Description:
Two copies of one chain form a homodimer. Chain A is of the alpha+beta class. Chain A has three domains: about 5-90, 2-Layer Sandwich (Uridine Diphospho-n-acetylenolpyruvylglucosamine Reductase, domain 2), CATH 3.30.43; about 95-210, Uridine Diphospho-n-acetylenolpyruvylglucosamine Reductase, domain 3 (2-Layer Sandwich), CATH 3.30.465; about 215-405, FAD-linked oxidases, C-terminal domain (Vanillyl-alcohol Oxidase, Chain A, domain 3, 3-Layer(aba) Sandwich). Chain A is about 35% helix and about 20% strand. The first copy, chain A, contains 17 helices and 19 strands. In chain A, the strands form four sheets. In chain A, strands 12, 13, 14, 15, 16, 17, 18 and 19 form an eight-stranded antiparallel β-sheet that branches. A five-stranded antiparallel β-sheet of chain A has the order 5-6-10-8-9. A four-stranded mixed β-sheet of chain A has the order 1-2-4-3, covered by helices on one side. In chain A, a hairpin with a 4-residue loop joins strand 18 (about 365-370) and strand 19 (about 375-380). Chain A is globular. Chain A starts with a helix and ends in a 15-residue tail after the last helix. The mean pLDDT of chain A is about 95. At the A-B interface, strand 9, helix 8, strand 11, helix 9 and helix 11 of A face strand 9, helix 8, strand 11, helix 9 and helix 11 of B.
Amino acid sequence: MRHAKTLEALSQLLPGRLSTSKSDRNLHGRSESYFDLMPPDAVAYVETTQEVQNLLKICSQFECPVIGWGTGTSLEGHTSAPRGGISVDFSRMNKILQLNAEDMDVLVQPGLTREALNIELRASGLFFPVDPGANASLGGMAATRASGTTTVRYGGMRENVKALEVVLADGQVIQTGNRARKSSAGYDLTSLLVGSEGTLGLITKLTLQLHPQPEAISAGIVAFDSMQQAVKAVIATIQMGLPMARIEFVDGATAQAFNEYAGAEMRIQPHLLFELHGSDASVAENAELFCDICQEYGGAGFQWSALPEERTALWTMRHNGYYAVLASRPGARAIVTDICVPISALAHAVEETHADIARSAISGPILGHMGDGNFHAILLIDPDNASEYRAAMQISDRMAERALALGGTCTGEHGIGMGKLKFMEQEHGLAWEVMRGLKRQMDPLNILNPGKLLRQN
Amino acid sequence: MRHAKTLEALSQLLPGRLSTSKSDRNLHGRSESYFDLMPPDAVAYVETTQEVQNLLKICSQFECPVIGWGTGTSLEGHTSAPRGGISVDFSRMNKILQLNAEDMDVLVQPGLTREALNIELRASGLFFPVDPGANASLGGMAATRASGTTTVRYGGMRENVKALEVVLADGQVIQTGNRARKSSAGYDLTSLLVGSEGTLGLITKLTLQLHPQPEAISAGIVAFDSMQQAVKAVIATIQMGLPMARIEFVDGATAQAFNEYAGAEMRIQPHLLFELHGSDASVAENAELFCDICQEYGGAGFQWSALPEERTALWTMRHNGYYAVLASRPGARAIVTDICVPISALAHAVEETHADIARSAISGPILGHMGDGNFHAILLIDPDNASEYRAAMQISDRMAERALALGGTCTGEHGIGMGKLKFMEQEHGLAWEVMRGLKRQMDPLNILNPGKLLRQN
């Protein structure tokens, strides 16, 4: 049995909480994506930082891979175990440890999900804005440098993680950052660890920046005659500096999927879904300015969601976009692409992507966080049809290459994992070697999430 | 002669642009602070990335220290050459290379100053907000992770540097980041290098995030009966989420210095200096809300600066605070402290600092970026009076220790350099060792700005 000594030592460390059952291993060996099953040898249900320290000491000793696990909503194979090892499941470390309402920050454990956090925060007048759609764990969101619908206004995990507790490969624990709003004290290790995908350490605590719940919220949808007109309206909005809290694009195919999946009654046309946060007066003023911009680009059929329930329904529908599109072709699997480009190149990138998909034999609704220049195509394939898989990968690869040619990035928010490894050389050149050097320094045995993010040789 | 071989090779690389004159070396061996003169062996006036690459190859070969130089406005001895070596003066690399107005970003060389950049941007409708007071170089500001008066609204260098070109210790050049608004593609090397104080590489290009010039700006000052009332008004403003563009505190002693140095007519009382950016309507609305908050804490004597010239005069006065305070005691030298604490601890930290100063034999006006929880005492000492120096260092040390005890940081924006080395262990613990590991990995010969930021053994 692979890693037998590790498993023996860990079963003593975590009595009753080290699972080697096939179902548990299989659950932790796949995620919501197209990667083949790559199960770990065991799943460790940790409960304390001390346990994570001891686990890493044991795994260092026996050179056994260690993969962090939050909720398994990664789309690029981050949680797969291509070399076996231990999946460290943080779902039992899901507490709020300290809410500092006056300072608008909160100390949490990594297994807490963003929705659970926001439910707990309701009475505080504060909220945590980063919103990748899925109800991901906050540790996983930090590890992936996630962002989402509200990033255009509030930033993503990069901007909203203030401090971390991290267990290093050798079991030592460090604190990075502090609770002040800024600091110039040495290397920004917090930023280095956010987005490191579990390859430099395991996050055991996070201090997150919170924001005041806005006094007024206004949300709605508006339809456009063409994708390009909708994208141009977004670009004009951003360039004018309008403080949109959300500005999301969905194409006609996504609108159709929403109608079928969620009982929406949208025109089969490109739409923007938007939200404004602020005082009553500022929201009203900015809503008017946004309407003017949309109308300039032919936007029509404005529908406003005045009631909280309506807004929740709108964003639930948006967040279920992936499932809605998936349901539009029963039995299909989805390859979700994810590129981010400078705003000036957004219309071009979306149009070319759309043309690529139209030329192919597969369908691929486009939607995204257009205010950031970040969008996705949800490419639907029959998992048993190799030519559809190839077609999807070709579209996905062309998107990433186009993004790089336009000065953007091969991933706006999903991360590298295994799926985007092939673009790292092209995107970073020699800087990818620097990343490998940092990795070697911090994890010389390469036990932390091997096979991800870094060059594999 | 120390480093003779390096000097010989460099004088061939940079004919007429390698200075070993005493005046040049002395100019580059001190900064605007209290450190003793520590001159480099030569000053290299570089003009291209290629020259910086060749310079670093030579300095690697001969293990000669290399210290980046922007404008010399560092306050913690960053530019001093305690081990000699080459000061790399970037003042000739001061061009704007590419303005992407649609994407609101700009590619610049590191020697360009923030004021020069903003003058060039005037016609574009955009501006670069980070504003540390001094007319620092943008490369130096990035290296120090600088921030300033507008950080409460726009963030500091951490938030506004999108991408870098960096020459590594061995002369290799890397690109970090990209022009998209966000990315999850691998380790955030840009953030690692911002704030690394020239110890990991030399910045040769920066891509900076710009912001739309606001439609309306309103600025002014308001007086308070006590420091604590003023600080409480700031805390309430931040906690309410009012989007202040600037919210600066000065105490009565600073107000007096302004009156004497800049001909101001301020009451000898604590004041807030503030600015709002936005649309006409939102600025008016927020100004009213801010007035209400101030009045709640006894704020009085509001003066509004409606005209651009008046606003410029107001912020010029603020930015010259250091010089105004320095002029209040002719012949004195200043030790400028710099701590940042969670907002909830701000009143306590300011009050205790004030009490420490009052108990001492020296004067030390207090001013700062209160919206970030960041403030400074400008401790005035007679450079020939050892007991005054000791008293100042004692106050400064107590401030830093208090900041750490309150969950803050020993430096909000001035950096570590040599001056704050003694707090790194206490602030970071084992994480400081991690920084040293990264440094060893990226600069194994320790030629990049040795003696700064990292443990010195």
